[in-house]
Amino acid sequence: MSKMSWQRRGAALVAAVGVLLAGLSAPSAVSAATPPTLDAFYNYTGSTPLADIAPGTVLKTRSLPYHLVGLSLPLTATQLLFRSTGALGQPTVSVTSVLRAPGKFDSTKALSYQSFYDSLNPADEPSYAISGGLTLGGIIPQVELAVFGAFVLQGYSIIIPDTQGEAADFAAAPEYGMVTLDSIRAASNSPATGLTKSTKIGLLGYSGGAIATGWASALAPSYAPDVNSRLIGAAEGGVFVDPVHNLHYISGSTVWAGVLVMAIIGIARAFQIDLTPYMSAYGLTLFTKLQKASIATVLGEYPGLTWQKIAKPQYAQPESIPVLVRVVNLLNLGSQPSPTVPMFIGQGANGVIEGTSGNKAGIGPGDGVMVAGDVRTLARQYCSSGTRVEYTQYDALSHVTSVALWLPAAITWLDQRFAGVAAPQNCASIKPGNSLAPIPAP
After folding, report:
1. CA–CA separation, 122 vs 137, rounded Å?
2. In this structure, are residues 158 and 151 in contact, taking their beta carbons and an 8 Å threshold?
3. Could you tell me which residues are beta bridge partners of residue 428?
4. Residue 369's closest CA among 266, 213, 260?
């Protein structure tokens, strides 16, 4: 099939999601879902210590209808509580939801879809939205059927992990990756899903979902070689690479500046470090206020907020805090080994140098929140390691508007990988980007 035919097919599948939604338009009454903090399903109560249980082991299982804005649809969701691993390597649990389309079902193929729910509140995670929960911060998982619905139409199972774990560790990127891989293990281990340990898996994620997709791809060979051998490829867009570059980039931004505080809270929570001694009085106020914030509640709420406003004068740059430097170096995706599976990477670069320190940091333009030069360098690193990479840069588009071009292309690319078509690569045409070298300790 020609590339143009595959592109038309991808666009047609995206359009057909509307038909899927229309076909599922006989919802039942609104559910009264129990929040995760009160729902016993989210807690492991077994007698065997978690440390003695293998990652990916299913601990609890339940089935329920898939919910859209609290309304029950005729899509079955199997939810699994499973053992995983936290940012510090400690045993943890998380929940994944496995969707199975009505009628048509292909047990040989599944899509692991990583949501961009981006929240510090466990009540905003996809599993709660799928079970019928409604929160303002959880609005994103409520609409993501429109993103992965094209695969439901083809009979694929959809695996949707709560990538940030039970504590909602926003920005703790390695944890996202391990939870994603253990979610695939759990879905394959459970007889309730119809999947097996030979089911082929594709990864798909944008923005926060790209954090999980990218780290899962990079960690799979070492952390989950059993999963890595079944991955057909990973498609990601709006990619987060170097945390310090992003902190500089969004500092002073009109729209994205509030995410700066969210990231600091999430990192401190996941790695159990105390960053409050470095904060100004205003920074401490925001640190307390935003403990359960989500991307949906902070965007545009703190225009012009800078790092310098939340930190004490002697810590005027993130690089001046030793404990933060240690952690953000661990969070730099560019420091990880290259994936061994094909990658499709899309990144907006509409010429925006956000905030007040983007120019000073010399990191160049991006999509408003992610830095294009970082993503290009990451793609080039992958290429130099032998990974087949198809990189697309949307020079005129922002983080939000890039999705309209990225999604049909990502669907097409994954369709080709599932069909056994050799992965394309355009490594020679990817322009140089920024240095991703670790930050020297202060």
Report:
1. 10
2. yes
3. none
4. 260
What is the Cα–Cα distance from 140 to 157, expressed in whole angstroms?
Answer: 20
Which pLDDT score, from 0 to 100, does residue 357 have? 67
Angstrom distances, CA of residue 130 to CA of 21, 34, 318, 382 = 15, 12, 37, 35
Q: What is the pLDDT of residues 183-234, one digit of tens each?
A: 999 999 999 999 999 999 999 999 999 999 999 999 999 999 999 999 999 9
SS (H, E, C) the chain: CCHHHHHHHHHHHHHHHHHHHHHCCCCCCECCCCCCCCCHHHCCCCCCCHHHCCCCCEEEEEEEEEEECCEEEEEEEEEEEEEEECCCCCEEEEEEEEEECCCCCCCCEEEEEECCCCECCHHHCHHHHHHCCCCCCCHHHHHCHHHHHHHHHCCCEEEEECCCCCCCCCCCHHHHHHHHHHHHHHHHHCCCCCCCCCCEEEEEEECHHHHHHHHHHHHHHHHCHHHHCCEEEEEEECCCCCHHHHHHHHCCCCCCCHHHHHHHHHHHHHHCCCCHHHECHHHHHHHHHCCCCEHHHHCCCCCCCCHHHHECHHHCCHHHCHHHHHHHHHCCHHHCCCCCCCEEEEEECCCECCCCCHHHHCCCCECCCCEHHHHHHHHHHHHHCCCCEEEEEECCCCCCCCHHHHHHHHHHHHHHHHCCCCCCCCHHHCCCCCCCCCCCCC
How far is residue 38 CA from its own chain's centroid? 25
- For the cut 60, the answer to whether the pLDDT of residue 89 exceeds it is yes
Rounded average pLDDT over 229-247: 97
Contact 251, 260 (CB under 8 A): yes
Q: For strand 389-394 and strand 343-348, is the pairing parallel, antiparallel, or unpaired?
A: parallel
**Spatial distance between the Cα atoms of 113 and 183, rounded to a whole number of angstroms:** 11
CA distance 203 to 181: 10
Q: CA-CA distance, 423 to 409, in Å (whole number)?
A: 13
| The pLDDT of residue 103 is above 80 | no
Q: Partners of 235 in the beta sheet?
A: 204, 344
Q: What is the pLDDT of residue 30?
A: 45
Angle at 371 between CA 265 and CA 170, to 5 degrees: 20
d(C-alpha 239, C-alpha 404), whole Å: 16
